Amino acid sequence: MEADEVLAGLDPEQRAVAEATRGPVCVLAGAGTGKTRAITHRIAYAVHTGVVSPQRVLAVTFTTRAAGELRGRLRQLGAPGVQARTFHAAAYKQLHYFWPKVVGGEPPRLVESKLGLVAEAARLCRLSFGRTELRDAATEVEWAKVTQTRPDDYAAAAAKAGRTPPAEAADMARVYEAYERLRRDRNLIDFEGMLELTAAILTEHQEVAHQFRDQYRHFVVDEYQDVNPLQKLLLDTWLGEREDLCVVGDPNQTIYSFTGASPSYLLGFTVEHPGAKVIKLVRDYRSTPQVVRLANGVLAQARGDARAHRLELVAQRSDGPTPVFSEHDDEVAEAEAVAKRIRELLDEGVPAREIAVLFRINAQSEPYEQAFADCGVPYVVKGAERFFERAEVRQAVVLLRGAARSDTGEPLVRAVRDVLAAAGLTDQPPEGRGAARERWESLAALAQLAEDVAIDRPSAGLREFVAELEERAGSQHAPTLEGVTLATLHTAKGLEWDAVFLTGLVEGTLPIIYAEKSPDQIEEERRLLYVGVTRAREFLTLSWALARSPGGRKGRRRSRFLDGLAPQSAGPPRVDRSARRPVSSGPQPCRVCGRPLTAAIERKLGRCESCPTDYDEDLLERMKHWRVLVSKRQKVPAYVVFTDATLQAIAERAPLSEADLAAIPGVGAVKLGRYGADVLALCRGEEPAADLVD
């Protein structure tokens, strides 16, 4: 590829980035404006014009997926030798390379998770942490380390930052100190220590610094608004006195300050680097004008410093549907409405992998998983098992590697599909959900990836495809699975879909209740909504529920961030759900003692877990046996038919009519139609239909 070809197709601002081959350069890039395109073309243009050799470039980003995408694009642009890594991956490689030279022996062993050591440290301090408190304590240790806060200074620093540790600040400081002592005694190092130690080696050993700086002379840092003080320390150590640095970021997408990240490095770049070139990317190629207008509207209401730094996006796509605002009686109704609309989109031809449901916290996913199971909608929970660690994927890679050794030059897609057919890939997926379907989806994702590679690199064969897989496995850059994505707003950053559903948009959830401590935290929650809106290319639905549970008090208020954006009267007409569940003016009472029920399993059972109850144990066992037969016939996990809690509730209430059965939480309209006759037959002491329903 010639240098002029690298510039072809770039808009004026992207071209300005690409041609700014010498630093310092600051690129302020709004969502969907092609920042990755701009910075990869900048690197490639610098390589093709002889400004720098690819081996002298270090591009740093925050996720292995983003690093893998950078490497892939640079390879297509004729710059395959560029190092594109996360901060941690770059530091890990440097530490292991230089450690034998300056220290000797084996470097400290890396601690993948802090939870075990933090739990042990808490016990030494005679503190008892539950699972949630333990995670929060590990987060506090991580925050303290990235902000370069020592145990003795933790209490004061935490108070100044407005943090809420899981224990008294003095006790948390003791846990932090004990954690550090255990780590040192066992010659362990965590991710933060790895960055700190790498910076220390470069600082204290000039010969190491000289060797590193001779190797890397050209630096690019993506997502610069998310840099924390420890990462900034390492970056400054890498640079030394040089200024060949290009940073890219969006102050509107600063959503990780709770981890210690600070947008001040991005916003203060020209102060730190006088004379730096600043280029703004605001042309949005991702979303329709309707979505862009809403995104701009979200930020138009920002207050304080956040308002001064916002980027106004300019839509480049043609018109699309107007975003939908939808209000519901309760979270179950909200999830069912989302599932119904997604079913319609799937029937209209929108691929499941191009649809996402986003929420503020992980706990909000449960009703959607249930609603999707009821409607037969395939889904993938982001953050679940790593793709390349799945047994079927490991087996497929082994088979592909073997086939690559005797590659006959057959077209890539056909060759890959032939190999995957031997591993179990069929033209049509298995019916229902379950292990067989998940295995098929993994293999289908590999086949789709082969098609993508063939389009990008028509000359690629099996050897190149296997190399692509091995590189992706190393960076955990998984291909897209065929299923609707369920994810938090934080984990959705950097991703995009044709259709996005932003759910649970109520006060106390977005903004989250603890954000009320300061105006800055509220503004970060507003930016979180902005990130969610800008994930959508075409279809966008924003929804909220007035009550948590069916029959609960409808006292919730939709998010303040929707004021002035959503219609005063939004969403579909209220649906009377009394035919399915009894509606009361308050929380559902226990049918034994009358206490209000709050836990999900108690609401399903209709009683407190501790309250006594009589039920037909034989009926419960017969229903469990029936459920096994149905799950095998439909090739789905047993819980997809009915959960244990729902079967327990059915056994306790022994319904004899469809109305009685429908009133039990966990028995939706779909399951009532699918399994109602069988369940009622079992409750009457009869045998269910011999021909089980598909």
Automatic annotation (TrEMBL):
Keywords: ATP-binding, Helicase, Hydrolase, Isomerase, Nucleotide-binding
A Pfam family matched in the record: HRDC
Keyword Repeat: no
Residue intervals of the HRDC domain: 613-693
Binding annotation for ATP: A29, G30, A31, G32, T33, G34, K35, T36
Region spans: Disordered: 549-587
UvrD-like helicase ATP-binding domain sequence ranges: 8-288
Enzyme class: isomerase
Reaction catalysis annotation: Couples ATP hydrolysis with the unwinding of duplex DNA by translocating in the 3'-5' direction; ATP + H2O = ADP + phosphate + H(+)
SUPFAM superfamilies: HRDC-like, P-loop containing nucleoside triphosphate hydrolases
GO MF annotation: an example: helicase activity
EC number(s) reported in the record: 5.6.2.4
Residue stretches making up the UvrD-like helicase C-terminal domain: 289-538
Keyword Hydrolase recorded: yes
InterPro entries the record matches: DExx_box_DNA_helicase_dom_sf, DNA_helicase_UvrD-like_C, DNA_helicase_UvrD/REP, HRDC-like_sf, HRDC_dom, HRDC_dom_sf, P-loop_NTPase, UvrD-like_ATP-bd
PANTHER family noted in UniProt: ATP-DEPENDENT DNA HELICASE UVRD2, UVRD / RECB / PCRA DNA HELICASE FAMILY MEMBER
Family in the record: Belongs to the helicase family. UvrD subfamily.
Name the UniProt record assigns to this protein: DNA 3'-5' helicase
Annotated organism of origin: Actinoallomurus oryzae
